[in-house]
Recover the amino acids of this structure.
């Protein structure tokens, strides 16, 4: 699985630490033009042990935050056998 969790409340629907991956788009392009499904990423991690595509992977939020505020996200990759890899982004300001 892939979980994207904000350290601070994102909007009225997603509070701090809620998984917001359902509103994320994964792409190989900085402009979100080359979408790749979450399932393709998960399948590669589970069957190969890593995501083998050598291109960058970008995550876009398809739903705006409720207001301008500082934010950080925990990005967590979870394999079928429950191995976990997590990292936290730097803090930055999001605007609606």
């Amino acid at each position: 699985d892939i979980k994207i969790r904000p350290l601070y409340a994102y909007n009225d629907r997603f509070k701090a630490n809620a998984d917001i991956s359902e509103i994320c788009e994964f792409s190989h392009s900085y402009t979100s033009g080359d979408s790749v499904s979450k399932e393709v990423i998960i399948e590669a991690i589970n069957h190969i042990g890593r995501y083998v595509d050598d291109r960058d992977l970008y995550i876009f939020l398809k739903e705006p935050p409720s207001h301008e505020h500082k934010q950080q996200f925990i990005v967590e990759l979870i394999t079928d056998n429950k191995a976990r890899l997590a990292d936290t982004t730097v803090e930055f300001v999001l605007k609606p």
